[in-house]
């Protein structure tokens, strides 16, 4: 049992799992248990869906501006609680506190405001099909929507998805990731204070194969919006078949970050290293630019600069203001990342920098020696057929792949089952536009990387999923269209 005990939110009540089970939450910077969360199961999901369905008829009748006011009130409460919630998230999943406090949490607050602004802008169309009828469409809420999120950005994904679901007038049952539920469970406590009626928002922590699976299969849930791995996406797709649920999927990636010789190489080196994959969250990002494609004529120069950036990364205690990279989230994920370091070596890649893990990184005597540390690691001499260039590693590990010209770069970039994101570094405007057009990905950045904004739709193509978070598009995906025909004859 951990020091701090977090609880579910079901029907407006903070509660333990009905079966009494708990899951330990581990501080990944020490490997020690620091909190416990409920191990919700199908019984808890049943109760949460029942509460959501009971709340739905009255919630649907709340006028849009009143709904917006609740979202805004929630934004204000979240702003007030930001420091505490950032602290919890830092402890729970290891992203640097400074980054959460200055970046994620303020963005979350803005997401709630952005979605509040959409509440009264959801409308259908009138369609003229002839003189003798009046035809129009209505955008209506779907009903109860299941939200399943992973552990790498709990508060950001919770905010983006839940705000969109509520803006469209739905009720929600959210299942956070078992490795990192605490910040979201703490943030759930603010809904009652904001004035949301009980049951409109429910949060049930638990394991994916228990609570998550029950949510996906529940006949009372009309849509599931999921962010997580592609493998789990496939399992959810199959489990949702019986109830023909609508699905929104934001899955994995193996994103190319492409540097041309004409680029501003200083900006590109920063953008593909600390900006792309050697991130505060230790590369545990679906949009990590883990394939660095470099034009052959600047290969050696750019690799030197990337290595310099990698060595400048400060890996360690995420609460320390000097830290720029935290640990890997769990022992399971840590072992997975480590296994790819050996795979790269076996495949013949050259280790340009990094490669140390665990206590070797922070020192055997450190109070953080038990943490799941991986140094920023760069492999050169890679080609796109290697497993390390094809499989999502979800850690601070990148491969450099040289290319000759535009056609070569595009072919390598698109030679992947994934299609989430891509970066292009060039001063050639026409080339930038061609790559934006031709790259098979949901997000393309030019002379930038990992830039996301609540007003911009975010999501993938191919094995990276479908459906979009953020932007008005995500709110529309949480509505269903009704077509009306009124006979005038
Ligand atoms: P990752 O940790 O690699 O992102 P997952 O995609 O498995 O891994 O996890 C993302 C979320 O999906 C988590 O909340 C997890 O509990 C949930 N999940 C895992 N398996 C299932 C499943 N079979 N059904 C529903 N949800 C699941």
Q: Which descriptors would you attach to this protein?
A:
single chain, 489 residues, Aldehyde Dehydrogenase, Chain A, domain 1, Aldehyde Dehydrogenase, Chain A, domain 2, 2 domains, six-stranded mixed β-sheet, binds adenosine-5'-diphosphate
Write up this protein:
- This protein is of the alpha/beta class.
- It has two domains: 270 residues, Aldehyde Dehydrogenase, Chain A, domain 1, CATH 3.40.605.10; 199 residues, Aldehyde Dehydrogenase, Chain A, domain 2, CATH 3.40.309.10.
- It is 39% helix and 20% strand.
- It contains 16 helices and 21 strands.
- The protein has a seven-stranded mixed beta sheet, with helices on both faces.
- Helix 2 packs antiparallel against helix 3 and helix 9 packs across helix 10.
- 54% of the residues are buried.
Indicate how many domains the architecture comprises: 2
* Straight-line distance between termini: 71 Å
User: Might you state the CATH topology name of the largest domain?
Assistant: Aldehyde Dehydrogenase, Chain A, domain 1
| Small molecules bound in the structure, each named once | adenosine-5'-diphosphate
| Total count of helical runs of at least 4 residues | 16
**What is the name of the CATH architecture of the largest domain?**
3-Layer(aba) Sandwich
Q: Which regions have little confidence, pLDDT < 50, spanning 5+ residues?
A: none
Task: Quickly give the structural class.
Answer: alpha/beta
- What's the total count of β strands? 21
Major sheet: order of its strands? 15-16-17-14-13-18-19
Give the overall average pLDDT.
98
